[in-house]
Amino acid sequence: MTEAKKVSLVLEDGTRFEGISFGYDRSVAGEVVFYTAMTGYPESLTDPSYTGQILVSTFPLIGNYGVPSDGMKDGIHQFYESNKVHISGLIISDYSKEYSHWNAIKSLGEWLKEWKVPGLYGIDTRALTKILRVKGSMLGKIEFSDEPVEFSDPNAENLVAVASCDKKEVYGNGEHKVVLVDCGVKYNIIRCLLDRNATVIRVPWDYDFTQEEYDGIFLSNGPGDPAKCGTTVEYIQKAIQQDKPIMGICLGNQLLARAAGAETYKLKFGHRSHNQPVLLAGTDRCFITSQNHGYAVAPESLPQDWEPMFVNVNDETNEGIRHKTKPFFSTQFHPEAASGPVDTEYLFDEFIENIVKFKKG
To answer: Where is L-glutamine bound in this sequence (predicted)?
Structure first.
């Protein structure tokens, strides 16, 4: 039986937690953030928006349903949100070595070792999360005693360039041609578009998509600071001079806002959960949403021809924007979920309806 190896999580303020390794034995540094979802760790760990981050799960028991198979459908993984594990490290309270699920093929620990991602259990994640809520997300490092590592801020680099695809790819053969600007896209966005009779033309973050033949533009989620994506913003600015429909999600919301002339800023500890309530502007309609972001749009900086579309009920931050006359809108949350509630998946239908109306003239 392999002896449990003790390892440390060190925060930039000097706070130290001691845990036990169940993933790959490697020291790493990144931004420490927490998420409160009770389920969906295979989807979260493969979400490119977590690039560069050490992820803390507030739900105490992780690993009990293992890791799903890696089957493919329509050119993408069926049960993952990308083709790899994107987190830098995983911090949990209690690790379930035994797992049971109809679709499980391996344990969480085995999966982390395959992707050379360290994982710690035996950490007081409640105490750790309270620190992050009070002081905000901060830099940290998972450090093995024989492998020291320095703190490193992932947001100092353009993480979108890391998470994006490196060449154009096409999925499906539907009636509606949608250019998907990949800033770190989750696969369920592609699935939702394919389910709605779309041909998805996936292009890198710095690709001039305005030269493509398309019916609509989709701006994906992704990691890091939207201010680092100036090239993408320039192409979006060219696109909004036209009337072809645009939809964005998460980072896509921030990039659309910056292209319109608005500002973005970093949240104290971000929104990473399945239970974020958002209100549709001008109504009493509230939706429960899945979210994963550390930056937000400053709604007061929106130009006169744009307006907030959704607002967060908890902290009143912006959760989406829309143009007052043109078919452009975006959400800060994830209508495609994966994992999480699907209350707002209807927004994909609205995007396709905008395309149909535009094509009819």
So the answer is: 49, 222, 224, 251, 254, 292, 294-295
Determine whether 71 is exposed, middle or buried from the number of CB atoms within 10 Å of its CB (0-12, 13-18, 19+). Answer: exposed
pLDDT in tens, 64-79: 999 999 999 999 999 9
Which residues in the chain come in under a pLDDT of 70? Answer: 1-3
Q: Which residues contact 140 (CB under 8 A, 6 or more apart)?
A: 9, 10, 11, 12, 29, 30, 31, 32, 54, 151
Query: Is the peptide bond prior to 8 cis by the omega test (within 30 degrees of 0)?
Result: no
Total-model pTM? 0.97
The binding site comprises: 49, 222, 224, 251, 254, 292, 294-295
Write out the catalytic residue numbers.
250, 334, 336
Distances (CA, A) of 176 to 179, 269, 320, 336: 10, 38, 24, 19
Helix (H) or strand (E) holding 6: strand 6-11
Distance, C-alpha 268 to centroid of its chain = 17
The bridge status of strand 306-312 relative to strand 263-280 is: antiparallel
**CATH architecture of structural domain 6-156:** 3-Layer(bba) Sandwich (3.50)
* Domain boundaries along the sequence of the chain: 6-156, 159-360
- pLDDT tens for each residue of 311-348: 999 999 999 999 999 999 999 999 999 999 999 999 99
- The residue among 335, 318, 332, 328 whose CA lies nearest residue 351 is 328
CATH among 3.40.50.1220, 3.30.420.300, 3.40.50.880, 2.60.40.2100 for 159-360: 3.40.50.880
Q: Please name the residues in contact with 341: beta carbons below 8 A apart, sequence gap of 6 or more.
A: 274, 287, 288, 289, 290
Cα–Cα distances in angstroms (integers) from residue 146 to residues 5, 21, 54, in the given order: 12, 14, 20
One-letter identity of residue 299: P
Q: How many CB atoms lie within 10 A of CB 146?
A: 7
Residues at the annotated binding site for L-glutamine? 49, 222, 224, 251, 254, 292, 294-295
Return the HEC string of 33-57: EEECCCCCHHHHHCCHHHCCEEEEE
Separation of alpha carbons 185 and 215, rounded Å: 19
